[in-house]
Amino acid sequence: MDCKLMELSIYLEELKMKRDQVAQLDVELSRLNLGLIEKESELHAKTAHCRQLELKLAKSNQELKKMIDDIGALTKSYQQETCRQEAAILDYAEKLRKVQMEKQCLTLKIGHFEKEIKEVYGHVRTVVEGLPKLHDQQESLAECLQAFETKQLKLIETCEMIQIYASRIQKEAEGKWKIAQESRANQNVLEKKLCVTEAQLRVVEGDLGKSDTAGLLRKQKESLSHQLEMSKQREDKLRLDLGREREEKLDLQRKHEQVLNQLAHYLSSEQKETIRKQLPCNCFVASATLSRAFLREKERWSMFIGQMPNVTVSTGREAVFTCIIDNVYNFKVAFLRVDTQTILAIDDTVITRSARVTVRHSIDKDERLSTGQRKTWQLYLKEVTPADAGGYMCQLNNFEPMVSQVAYLHVTVPPDILVNESSSDLAIKEGGNATLKCSAIGYPEPNITWRREDYQPIDMNQSVGVVEGSILNLVGVHRRQMAAYLCIASNGIPPPVSKRILLRVE
């Protein structure tokens, strides 16, 4: 019994100790609760402060957006003002170009007029010095004058016949040249079709091997190649005809010059100084008239040799425009950009500020002509960009009307897929419809085809290996259609590009 009492007392002591510990824990718990309440109050205060900061931030964002809108409006107005100033500068440059052209023409005309005036003064002095001898030689010169007039009429008739025959040859040459230009245009169209067919054939051979479509494309390629060869043969034949007609025209030109020289010789000989005053015209007037006519004949024979060819280059390469002119004399040759009417170069002087533009020329002496030279002018444009594509003019600044030729620059650009305008990986529920879109840029315009990455047929209304078009529509998608699809863009300019689009069916 004592043992139990002892154990009980020990148990009571332990119980008291536990009670004291519980009391201490209650005190600690109360202290922790107070701390928690203080932390919660601090948290509420910080939350309220954060809300205030959020309101201030939203207000600042509104003010910033307003400032951005104001800056955009100012930028837009500045751009509009810049565009107006650029338009005014271009207008001024165009007016300046016209004034420069008119100044050059007037300078040339003044030079010719000064030469004619000097010739007239020389003839006048000659006539005045020979006046004392006119009375003694009047009768003998009357007979000579009749002979001269007869010779003059014959020479004029010969000259007119040569001009009529030359105009007929010129018309025939223009007709054949027009046919040659049409043949060249048809040849360019056939070359483009042939390039497209070869690109399609390469795609089909890479995707399907030897299939019926590949055979049809090969036949189409052979047909286009045959048509292109026939077009080249016709063009060569027309070129030979034009060469023969040019030889005939040069022969007529030599005869024409000989006739004019003989006529001028008869009218400017020493015996014309004693022409009677009562004659209907004076020799020096006739000689000056013939001199002007001869200059006009020279101007008329200044001409282009062939058509300035079009140029096709890839981005970053160098483009060269070649312009061949016969009988340039002292006239100026200029190169212009057609769409902007910008003067690029005049003779050997580059007008534009672009460092990519240079101009050169070479001289070929034509032994068949008594005067004049054949010059080959070349305009070099380095590191071309798609913005350089367009028409370029080679202009001969002789008397009005000025003659010119226009050639076009085609800048080929390899295909490139526009990622932002094309579809990305797509997940769709089974039975739904899927639309895959692919956009590409390049020149010529890229051809877009679709195929599966695993070379399995695409299950649409019927199973096909390749689908053409920028959009691939899949209706009622099932799990067998879950695969990676390739969008391939090609335009005959290497390399073709592709984009992988993964279609998941849930």
UniProtKB/TrEMBL annotation:
SUPFAM superfamilies: Immunoglobulin (SSF48726)
Family annotation (SMART domains): IG, IGc2
The keyword Disulfide bond appears for this protein: yes
InterPro entries: Ig-like_dom, Ig-like_dom_sf, Ig-like_fold, Ig_sub, Ig_sub2, Immunoglobulin_dom, Neural/epithelial_adhesion
Keywords attached to this entry: Cell membrane, Disulfide bond, Glycoprotein, Immunoglobulin domain, Membrane, Repeat, Signal
Cellular localisation: Cell membrane
Residues annotated as domain Ig-like: 415-498
GO cellular component: neuron projection; plasma membrane
Annotated protein name in UniProt: Ig-like domain-containing protein
Organism: Daphnia magna
